[in-house]
Design goal:
Length: about 300
């Protein structure tokens, strides 16, 4: 009986592949290599984010101006006399060679910590609405700019509003993930009122608060990208959250470091600009602080969106 042409051929072996290890959250284990390209450094990401805004300054400037004017009109107001009085009071407390510099630094910390505070619930509602609308306009503009398309200010505020409800739903899911840090902060403030009698106890409760904050950051390190994914056409909130978790899979701790860099960068940069101005002219520093605060939201979105694209 004649052999078929393929009878004498050896079976073809499939190429060997390494099986990806199983990853478990909050467990120390060897780093799993996935073959994905490395994420650029935080400074490189920030440089790229600012470069995109500089190259396409017209739509971003228009959005910033509209956001700033509405924020100043509906939410915040500038009080130069209040800044001067606070500066004088701090100067009276801090005497010595570096007293004025210490007062300027303390005033900047106070301004930064109270920048999001509002006087009443109406102003808080306006602030929330302005932040949501401006964020959607910025995300729409960033997506079109990176795609090489022309972006106009009015198009960002008009066409960027369609995923408002899915965006809010994802934002609510992210807010739930903030519960550990909120509970930790409440307990930490409670024990510091007299329950923690010694410094050691205060440190222990501080570590406990830090661990809860780490839990929230760990969960938010994926959910924050779902805010950008859900803005894609016909994307459901749960689908966006699942896609975001897959996006940071095996890279979550690296992403967390990149996200932690953002508030540190904004705080240090703001301090380098505002503290010398407070030292020289407090009213001018107040105006500059309001302007830099308006720039914070677009810089935040540009940086995170840049990081999101690097993860794709």
């Amino acid at each position: 009986m004649a052999k078929t042409p393929t009878a004498d051929k050896k079976p073809v072996k499939e190429p060997r592949t390494l099986k990806t290890g199983n990853y478990k959250s909050f467990k120390l284990q060897k780093r799993i290599k996935t073959g994905d390209p490395d994420i650029p450094g935080a400074f490189k990401l920030m440089k790229g984010a600012l470069g995109v805004m500089r190259q396409n300054w017209k739509p971003f400037l228009g959005i910033i101006v509209i956001y700033g004017l509405l924020n100043l009109l509906l939410v915040q107001s500038f009080n130069a006399s209040g800044i001067n009085q606070t500066k004088d009071n701090l100067d009276a407390m801090n005497t010595g060679r570096f007293g004025n510099l210490l007062s300027s630094t303390m005033l900047f910390v106070y301004m930064a910590s109270s920048s999001g505070n509002v006087t009443n619930t109406t102003a808080g509602a306006y602030q929330l609405i302005l932040t949501l609308v401006t964020s959607l306009a910025l995300i729409w503009t960033l997506r079109h700019v990176y795609a090489g398309k022309k972006a106009r200010v009015r198009d960002g505020f008009y066409w960027g509003m369609y995923p408002l409800i899915p965006f809010i739903l994802v934002l609510l899911a992210a807010a739930i993930q903030l519960l550990p840090v909120v509970v930790g902060g409440f307990i930490y403030n409670l024990v510091n009122t007299g329950i923690a009698a010694t410094g050691v106890e205060a440190i222990i409760w501080g570590v406990f608060f830090g661990l809860l904050a780490l839990v929230s950051l760990y969960m938010l390190s994926s959910s924050i990208f779902a805010l950008y994914i859900v803005c894609l056409p016909e994307t459901q909130p749960m689908e966006a959250l699942r896609s975001a978790r897959e996006l940071v899979r095996f890279r979550r701790w690296t992403v967390m470091r990149k996200l932690l860099f953002l508030p540190v960068f904004l705080l240090i940069t703001g301090g380098l600009i505002i503290i010398p101005l407070i030292y020289i002219a407090a009213p001018l520093a107040g105006i500059t602080f309001l302007i830099t605060s308006m720039l914070g939201l677009p810089i935040i979105h540009s940086y995170i969106y840049r990081l999101y694209r690097e993860l794709l």
